Amino acid sequence: MRVVIVGNGPASASAIEAFRKVDKTSQIIVLSDEEFPTYAPNCMENVIRGDIEEEALFYKGGFSFYEKHQVDFRPNKEVVGIDNRRKVVLVKGGEEVPYDKCLLAAGAYAFVPPIQGVELGGVTSAKNLYDARRIREWILSGRVRSVVIVGAGPIGVEDAETLKHMGLEVHVVEFFDRVLPRMLDKFMADRYVKPLEEGGINFHLNHQVVALHGEDRWVEAVEIRPNGTDKSKFIRADLVILSTGVRPRTNLVSDTDIKLHINETTGRVVGGILVNAYQQTSDPDVYAAGDICSGLDAWGNHRWIALFPTAQQSGAIAGFNMAGLKVENPGLVDYNAVKTRGVTAGSGGTFEDAEESFTFEWEGKLVKVFLKEGSLCGYQFVGIERRKSLNPRNAFLKNKTIRSWSEKVLRDLGLGLESSGVLFHHFLRFKERKLEEGVLKAIKGGMLRSLANPTFEIAIF
């Protein structure tokens, strides 16, 4: 059997490991549009700071991973689509790669909003390793003093803290009335953002970016407006990072009959490629995992969840099933945490339609739990601000080309390896779990953990 995997991220790596546990001999081909081995996509701010070793960044062991698992790894192969009738993967340039089973694990791409001036130099996303290395190079060159980040989601706030600690003036523009709008409600977001503001990051909430301006083909200023007004103001910027979300690479199946996640009421596409509990698409020989697809969550609903842990989980399920097993995904939970060092925050499950909530403090964290019909449906947490000493191993502090910034950097404590806090999620695994006294005691006692591999999804109470 020949298995072709499109994409080289966490879903792909987990699928390879799972597949080889069952099938030791079938051919596996991995097509990647990048030159790198699998890397940790949630560590791009570490790359910008320069405080991550290659062993951690290329967390599966680099190129030796493919040798170990007998994988034909083909980098710099941009897949433009598949022809599932002929069972071939289409590569840019005309190459066709036939398959018996195909896994679409190409992830998502950074969404670039249609803003005037986005083509200027110094404007970039921060989605992949190319982006992170480019941002770091610009900063170390000395040409960047002020940065504007568009979007206050997890990547936006992590990059904001990182760049502030690297001595830059940092502004964050967010359309909504709070930071982390998909992770925290306003009550929790206001508590999270306060230490970041006190640390010198400038947040412009309830604002939208109108245009980017610059001469000599390089950005110089960002024009923003408060929502509902036509009064513009300008922020000086040598670097603009677009952190405006991602979109699944559904274009890979645009010329096929493979189904997408569509809202049945409106008829609009609301997610990625639709998969069942076995990670199969509407074509049983084509699987999908990770950010490219909409899978079943812990409550049995199709949802598009573009997160590292869910990619690992869905990839493992796809790998087992392509190898001939019949393994159901136990259900995805969108748990996430930001890796800001001054203060942590995270959330999981859903809370928009919760009927009630309660809040308590636990080991330096403010925790808010949401309920619907008497069952737990989601949570949020925000940590208490803490100060950390500088990390002497950080290469940034040793860089002679930016010695003039050292005084400013040393005054801004917090630089170093991040502490992401605890991801409280596993108590959401079962819909029927009620908020009984024993459950409440376990939650408040900290009997919570984060896991990405479904093999270890075992409740501890």
Walk me through the topology.
Blueprint: E1 2-6, H1 10-22, E2 27-31, H2 44-49, H3 54-57, H4 64-68, E3 71-74, E4 79-83, E5 88-91, E6 96-98, E7 101-104, E8 108-110, E9 123-125, H5 129-140, E10 146-150, H6 154-165, E11 169-174, H7 186-198, E12 202-205, E13 207-215, E14 218-226, E15 233-236, E16 239-242, E17 246-248, E18 260-262, E19 269-274, E20 286-288, E21 293-296, E22 302-303, H8 308-322, E23 336-338, E24 345-349, E25 356-362, E26 365-372, E27 375-383, H9 395-398, H10 406-411, H11 437-444
Parallel strand pairs: 1-2, 1-7, 2-3, 7-20, 9-16, 10-11, 10-16, 11-12, 19-21
Antiparallel strand pairs: 4-5, 5-6, 8-17, 13-14, 14-15, 18-19, 21-22, 23-24, 24-27, 25-26, 26-27
Helix pairs in contact: 1-8
Description:
By secondary structure, the protein is an alpha/beta fold. Among the domains are: 2-108 and 248-322, FAD/NAD(P)-binding domain (3-Layer(bba) Sandwich), CATH 3.50.50.60; 123-244, FAD/NAD(P)-binding domain (3-Layer(bba) Sandwich). Helices cover 21% and strands 28% of the residues. It has helices at 10-22, 44-49, 54-57, 64-68, 129-140, 154-165, 186-198, 308-322, 395-398, 406-411, 437-444; strands at 2-6, 27-31, 71-74, 79-83, 88-91, 96-98, 101-104, 108-110, 123-125, 146-150, 169-174, 202-205, 207-215, 218-226, 233-236, 239-242, 246-248, 260-262, 269-274, 286-288, 293-296, 302-303, 336-338, 345-349, 356-362, 365-372, 375-383. The strands form 7 sheets. A 5-stranded parallel sheet has the order 3-2-1-7-20. A 5-stranded parallel sheet has the order 9-16-10-11-12, with helices on one face. Mean pLDDT is 85; it is low at 400-431 and 446-461.
